[in-house]
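Could someone model iron/sulfur cluster with this protein?
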Amino acid sequence: MSSFKEIFNSHTWSEVQQSISSKTVKDVEHALQKEKRDIEDFKALISPAAEAYLEQMAQLSHLLTQKRFGKTMQMYAPMYLSNECQNICTYCAFSLDNKIKRKTLSDAEIIQEAEAIKAMGYDHILLVTGEANQSVGVPYLKHAIQLLRPYFSNISIEVQPLEQAEYEVLRQEGLHTVLVYQETYHQENYKTHHPKGKKSNFYYRLETPDRLGKAAIYKIGLGILIGLEDWRTDSFFTALHLNYLEKTYWQTKYSISFPRLRPIELAKEDGQHIQPASQYISDKQLVQLICAYRIFNEEVELSLSTRESETFRNHSLKLGITSMSAGSKTNPGGYSVEPQSLEQFEISDERSPKEIAHIIKQQGYEPVWKDWDKILS
Ligand code: SF4
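Reply:
Sure, complex below.
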């Protein structure tokens, strides 16, 4: 098997959707009782029939997470290096057709941001850029990692998909993790959401985790943008992708994120806030999804960002989540250089890392700022 594409092409969206909605209470009970679950069990756990079993799922997910990860919560902060982007994505403020001020951080600004984030207590950093190969291509990313290594022991990126050799170059500089979200596995509608730019190439994005696995990147982060398409069907394909990757690149670690669409600010609308159609998943259903992933896969890391509200994060942190951001800024220079410039999306939970750490401790968990994994491995 050379890539996930072949497995992906052996399924159709409508058949998967139909199969999930036909799962019964019996299927859900069977999935909950098993020792080891398969992809059919995952379908049952995310199905409408499982909604009545949420309490049971939450308890099991909590237990499995504690067994594997203990009572810890890994803390990380995103650092936006640039909002330049050559793609048009219908849901993002950095989209090429949105007439906003563009900014890419200079060396001095990267250092300034690093010092501000370090002062908040962080040792894990996620570098984020738009997808602009000219201004934030591999040479820029390589240099940024070199600048940041003295400050952070764990560096992740969420940038444009790259070639295997390019990932290898960045890994040698100290890159630890790469997040690459498919956004949606609905191939036809993917084109509607990504009409222009390199990102419109569905299969190039779909095969990115394969290139990451071949490049021996330590950890790969998967996800969809919840709210673009039917979350259940999209989550099935994410789990299928995860299953394939774990079997193929078994030395790699994996994480899943659950970004839900957030309001964005569009310059062409005179600063008016555009509310995305995020009615596709309720808070309760998002909890169901988090628990389903955990029950399906005891090893995968589950990450929750500040896109989610204070209340949701307070209530869900013990249910399966293993890493969280806090005090995040989603604009380049947001921590120290340019606090007022346009954000990629609005943050929902605006509490400081200190406040979040307090909440985590109140619930009997330990916030982890420094991960010793890398040193031990
Ligand atoms: S989602 Fe990414 S690729 Fe799309 S416009 Fe935003 S920054 Fe660019």
